[in-house]
Design goal:
4 strands; single chain; two-stranded antiparallel sheet; mainly alpha
Length: 457
């Protein structure tokens, strides 16, 4: 059972004042997060080293991603590449040495999809076993498999889920500091797109920046629902608004359409959940504040930051440009890829393009710019149907959960689906670090979901 003690409040009740900034920080964290800082450290300490490495990796992953540029010097000194090679070795080691778990219906659905992922990733090794690109694609295509079944060993109850989410939220502090530095001191790195200048920190692209913004907002919203019976709503709302304001500031400078749309849908879902509970005044207050902000800055933001992103699509709708130019030219790419897919033998269409033992890297990687197409090309129509079935079963599992966990499942799945339209989220380790613990929690039995460190919650 999580503690509800607030150290700063205890100091004041005793007529004392916190002696350091860290005491204030610890006090606020204890009030708004699922675990106190002390409980979070104990949770990590309770994990065997076969599992403990993962939350530590989560904690430093944004820093690791900031050294992405070192791959231009050599992949062997690039921290993301080193982490990418060590992760499957550590996952497999834990799966071999730790006690297995009983499969639930979500685990079985994931296992069926995993068969096709592993089969097609192994086929890549027959294509060119000595190629560095082949090895990289082998690890990335199989990544959901070894990560999910490892995380199922890690996430055994609600405490473990909160521990993972809180670790990820702590990791975004680094991202927030980098964002503030770029906003006030100038960009670390930029990317030009559609006449707009995008900040991207030290990340490989703006997608990673956008994902961290969405994850921090989503987790903060989840903790708002999970802690509202323990903490005054005014405190939770102030913290949540601070996270959202910083997130909006980041959005307006990364200029990424998929992140814009995902963030807006996430906020809409948050309002819907507040209307469905006893928090209607919170939703109405946010709508009022948002409407006021839009009346002041809305036209400028739309004209200068959003319209350039939609200019091509609007030109298509009015007949000025070809239909293939939709989604910044992705529609034409998807059409050509699908034409080639339907020219393949039937067994390749059913079970994946790597089975033909010819190069298909442009189809099974980020080049497809759509995760559903990428999964179709990687595992065939059978794999895509299994994947959709897995997502549907995960969404359905939320019906038996409390309001906070239901919000987490629904918002997590919506984030995955929306990003999948024009990005390939399951190809990004950062995205899997967030979504797979959520799916692993959904895969627990009802008794496990309602447990906290082996005891009823």
């Amino acid at each position: 059972m999580p503690s509800c003690g607030f150290p700063v409040q205890n100091y004041l009740l005793q007529g004392k004042a916190p002696t350091s900034i860290s005491a204030y920080f610890a006090g606020w964290c204890n009030r708004i997060l699922a675990l106190t800082f002390k409980e979070w450290k104990k949770w990590i300490g309770d994990l065997p080293w076969l599992l403990r490495w993962f939350p530590l990796l989560l904690l430093v992953r944004p820093l690791i991603d900031s050294f992405y540029f070192l791959k231009e010097v050599s992949p062997f000194i690039s921290p993301p590449y080193i982490a990418g090679v060590l992760t499957p070795l550590l996952c497999i080691s834990a799966m071999v040495r730790l006690q297995n778990f009983r499969f639930t219906f979500i685990d079985k659905a994931f296992a069926l999809w995993s068969i096709l992922l592993l089969l097609n990733s192994l086929m890549l090794l027959f294509l060119d076993p000595l190629s560095l690109m082949t090895f990289e694609f082998f690890l990335k295509i199989s990544m959901p498999v070894y990560l999910y079944f490892f995380i199922r060993l890690l996430v055994r109850d609600l405490r473990d889920l909160h521990g993972v989410l809180q670790t990820m939220l702590y990791s975004t502090i680094f991202v927030g500091l980098v964002l503030l530095f770029e906003l006030f001191s100038g960009p670390v790195a930029i990317q030009e797109s559609r006449g707009l200048t995008r900040i991207q920190g030290g990340f490989g692209d703006v997608v990673s920046y956008g994902m961290y913004i969405v994850f921090s907002t989503l987790i903060a919203c989840y903790f708002y629902f999970s802690r509202q019976h323990l903490v005054r709503k005014s405190i939770l709302i102030r913290v949540l608004m601070a996270v959202m304001v910083l997130g909006v500031a980041g959005l307006l400078n990364i200029h990424h359409t998929a992140t814009y749309s995902t963030f807006m849908v996430l906020l809409a879902l948050f309002l819907v959940y507040n209307f469905r509970t006893a928090n209607r005044h919170v939703a109405l207050g946010m709508i009022l504040i948002g409407g006021l902000a839009f009346s002041i800055w809305g036209s400028t933001v739309i004209e200068e930051r959003i319209s350039p992103l939609l200019e091509t699509d609007l030109a298509v709708y009015v007949g000025e440009k070809d239909y293939d130019q939709l989604f910044h030219g992705r529609m034409g790419r998807w059409r050509r890829m699908m034409d080639n897919y339907f020219e393949q033998p039937v067994f390749v269409q059913l079970f994946g393009m790597p089975l033909r033992l010819e190069s298909a890297f442009n189809y099974i990687g980020v080049g497809s710019h759509n995760d559903f197409f990428r999964i179709l090309f990687t595992t065939g129509a059978a794999g895509l149907l299994l994947y959709i079935s897995l997502l549907w079963k995960t969404i359905r599992s939320a019906a038996a959960m409390g309001i906070a966990q239901r919000f987490l499942i629904h918002s997590g799945m919506l984030t995955l689906l929306l990003y999948s339209i024009s990005v390939t989220p399951t190809f990004y380790p950062t995205f899997l670090y967030f979504i797979l613990p959520v799916m692993a929690y959904a895969g627990l039995t009802e008794t496990q979901r309602l447990s906290w460190n082996g005891h009823p919650y």
